[in-house]
Write a structure and sequence with these properties.
Length: 552
């Protein structure tokens, strides 16, 4: 080898090393994928002294090579022009995994003319495979207008460039995949947080679409829901969506399956077996969706379906609450009408009692000591009249709650007086009243507190056998007074004690009349005043004991 030849070889090696260093710097300094490929293609064209360079990348799932970058062919074909592995010179090189140099492509049977890409002015072509980790990732080409025989040095140089580019592309892909994964995780996390903090469906759907398109810059997306008539309705959108993409979303709904296109993906929204709508993503320039990308869009679709289902349950709950309020209003109206109608018979009864009393005073009974209890009967009628007034007052307030009127009073004296009035009601039992003694002053609603004790006594008369005692006692404790009503009935089974204070729960004796609301209403009345109502075992294990505490 002559000295001049050695000098030229050395100079070329230095140029090659300088070029490879430049490519490495480009890869580390350029963040945009398309810009990096364009710069590599431009530098390769200059270094190889060619008129055009092009780069095809392999899509493994489809086994096709897609034009990713070029600087002399039709740039509108970038992302669109494809060749199958084994098809044309590019496909042959990818399949054989060896370089191929052709002096005149017009005389090469392996060359395939791609009308949207190739130009007739180019004659010679050198193609080399991009290999990394023993896998082909693409093919790099250079073409010249003049016929040219590429020597072994040039072929080796382009192969070295291709190997360098293959490593850069693989690293860039890994970096892009990692960034996309990070955006995907962030998107799913944000949507999950919103799902736990709001029930506004439109807000959640808008966030789903926004986070979806953020993962794929330059993309657009939408969520369509099935309307009442079954037709899809656009509920959230980001960016412009071509008609073909919207049509794909409708197909996903009609056929209840994923629809994948060259640059779009539509997935149905399913809540169990219920079809709710579809989510669609459009990525211009995207040529295929990898399985992880489909899985991510599917995860967001699941989040959207969950939000829709949750919003539907909330709407159902709201409608149910409205219906219950309407029922409560109807019940209140019914109670108001019925109690109002009670006034007339009560007035008649009171009138007859007054008339009988007047006649009794005008014509005393001939037998001494015989007297009708007219005054007591009139008092009970007056008490019924007051109950009607309170019921009419209570139905005017929401939730059937009566206002409290807390005053200080002697609970012992009030109980003795009220229970004496109830003696006729308990005439088949032995009603034992609290012992007389020092006043026990409490601060509570006088009328409601005494009514609760009276209701417990009335309850005891229904369940305790005739002739058995019903004992009412009262004790003073620090900060409260405690009243106990004990009977000789069957008691409450242990399994039922946790639920006897629930509404509409009845005792074991189903033949005893009642609505099952008494204990529930009594506990509410006591707790509203800061007291408690509970059940205790009788000391001798027979009968029931209900205790009421009243704040002092």
């Amino acid at each position: 080898m002559t000295a001049p030849q050695t000098g030229r070889d050395t100079e070329r090696k230095l140029q090659e090393l300088s070029f490879l260093h430049e490519i490495t710097q480009l890869a580390s300094s350029t963040r945009d994928w398309d810009e990096m490929l364009r710069l590599i293609i431009d530098r390769t064209t200059d270094a190889m002294r060619a008129e055009v360079s092009s780069l095809y990348l392999l899509e493994r799932r489809e086994a096709i090579l897609r034009l990713a970058a070029t600087n002399g062919l039709d740039r509108r074909s970038i992302g669109r022009a494809t060749l199958r592995v084994g098809e044309g010179i590019v496909g042959w090189v990818a399949n054989a995994r060896v370089p191929l140099a052709v002096r005149d492509v017009r005389n090469e049977p392996r060359f395939k003319w791609v009308s949207s890409v190739d130009q007739s002015r180019f004659t010679s072509m050198l193609s080399v495979p991009l290999v990394t980790r023993d896998e082909v990732v693409g093919v790099m080409n250079v073409q010249t207008v003049e016929a040219r025989d590429f020597d072994r040095g040039e072929i080796g140089f382009l192969q070295t460039i291709a190997n360098q580019v293959a490593g850069i592309i693989e690293m860039s892909r890994l970096h892009r995949d990692a960034e996309r994964k990070l955006r995907e995780v962030s998107a799913l996390f944000e949507v999950s947080n919103v799902l736990t903090s709001t029930l506004e469906l439109d807000e959640v759907l808008a966030l789903v679409v926004d986070r979806l398109v953020r993962v794929y810059p330059g993309s657009s997306g939408a969520v369509l829901l099935r309307g009442e008539n079954g037709n899809p309705v656009l509920r959230a959108r980001s960016g412009d969506l071509p008609r073909a993409v919207l049509a794909a979303a409708r197909r996903a709904i009609d056929e209840a399956r994923p629809v994948v296109g060259p640059d779009h993906l539509a997935l149905p929204l399913l809540a169990g077996e219920r079809l709710l709508g579809a989510v669609v993503l459009n990525v211009p320039g995207e040529n295929t969706f990898a399985d992880p990308e489909v899985a991510f869009v599917g995860a967001l679709a699941n989040q959207a379906a969950l939000a829709i289902d949750k919003a539907a349950l909330f709407a159902l709950e709201r409608r149910t609450a409205e219906n219950l309020r309407e029922l409560e209003r109807a019940r209140s109206e019914l109670v108001a009408v019925v109690t109002h109608d009670l006034r007339t018979p009560l007035s008649v009864i009171r009138g007859y009692l007054d008339l009988i009393g007047e006649r009794d005073r005008a014509h005393p009974a001939p037998r001494a000591g015989v007297r009708l209890p007219l005054r007591e009967a009139s008092a009970q009628v007056a008490h019924l009249d007051q109950l009607v007034d309170r019921i009419l007052e209570s139905v005017k307030t929401e939730g059937f709650e009566r206002p409290l009127r807390r005053v200080r009073f002697d609970l012992r004296a009030e109980l003795i007086a009220r229970l004496r009035e109830l003696a006729p009601m308990a005439r088949q039992h032995r009603l034992v009243l609290p012992r007389a003694g020092r006043p026990i002053i409490v601060r509570a609603d006088r009328r409601r507190t005494v009514e609760v004790i009276a209701a417990l006594v009335h309850n005891a008369t229904k369940y305790a056998p005739a002739s058995t005692p019903i004992v009412v006692s009262i004790v003073s404790e620090p900060g409260r007074a405690v009243v106990r009503v004990r009977d000789g009935g069957p008691g409450i089974p242990l399994a039922d004690r946790a639920r006897i204070f629930d509404p509409f729960v009845r005792g074991v004796a189903e033949d005893v009349p009642g609505s099952g609301i008494g204990l529930y209403a009594s506990r509410r009345a006591v707790e509203a005043q800061g007291g408690e109502l509970w059940y205790e075992d009788a000391p001798d294990a027979s009968g029931s004991v209900f205790a009421v505490s009243v704040p002092r």
